Amino acid sequence: MSIGIDYKIDILKTAFNADLFTDIVGNTYNAYGRAYVNERNGQKIPELQTASTTEYRDISIDTGIHGLSFMVVGDTIDPLSQLDFVASVDVYFAVNLDILYPAVTERATEYLHRDVGQSLNDSEFEITKIVTGREAFKDFDLIKEGDNLEPFYLVKFETTVEYQLKESTKC
Questions:
Q1: Quick one: pLDDT at residue 149?
Q2: 2, 168 in Cβ contact below 8 A?
Q3: Which of 50, 70, 119, 134 could disulfide-link 35, Cβ–Cβ 3.0 to 4.6 Å?
Q4: CB-based contacts of 164: which residues, under 8 Å, 6+ apart?
Q5: Which pTM does this prediction carry?
Q6: Which residues contact 20 (CB under 8 A, 6 or more apart)?
């Protein structure tokens, strides 16, 4: 079961998996939900909490997959009322543009921006900024040389979303 901000993130994750790159046969894109920035061996890395509340697994930028996305909630969440809040949520994408946009003959960054932007606009998340390239993943120590060279692309959509603590669903 997820509640509050995690409920909103789970809805967006489901939309990404249902809407993005579904026309690509053998597509290995995976939308992950909420990630946490943890320090391991002196490096900051995004990690997903497993079914256990005390175990995490890292999200690695693997150039062997078609793409992935994950979300990180900002450190400060502002109240709008007793049970209503607004949070900043960074939505990260690491993708292989050539595989996900095979018919596009130029670098397909704007196609990705369009498609993700449409999914975000259809949700309750509001885009406040798009950060591209290595700068998009600067908060993590996992980026290697080549992770943002053609055909690979890194991008972060900075968003805000309003939510209620009482919103919930069973996952």
A1: 77
A2: yes
A3: 70
A4: 4, 83, 84, 85
A5: 0.92
A6: 29, 31, 115, 116, 119
Q: Is the peptide bond before 151 cis (omega within 30 degrees of 0)?
A: yes
* % of the chain residues with pLDDT over 90: 63
Question: Which pLDDT belongs to residue 171?
Answer: 46
Tokens of 136: 């998009």
At the topology level, CATH places domain 2-169 in STM4215-like (3.30.2000)
For residue 30, the cross-strand partners are: 68
Residue 35's Cβ-side half-sphere holds a number of Cα atoms within 13 Å equal to 25
Quickly list H helices, 20-73.
none
CB atoms within 10 A of CB 86: 14
CA distance 143 to 87: 26
**Left, alpha or beta for 54 (phi > 0: left; psi -120 to 50: alpha)?**
alpha
Burial class (CB in 10 A: 0-12, 13-18, 19+), 64: exposed
Which residues sit opposite 160 in a β-bridge? 88, 126
Band (60; pLDDT cuts 50, 70, 90): confident
In b/e form, how buried is each residue of 8-22, taking b as 16+ CB within 10 angstroms? Answer: bbbbbbebbeeebbe
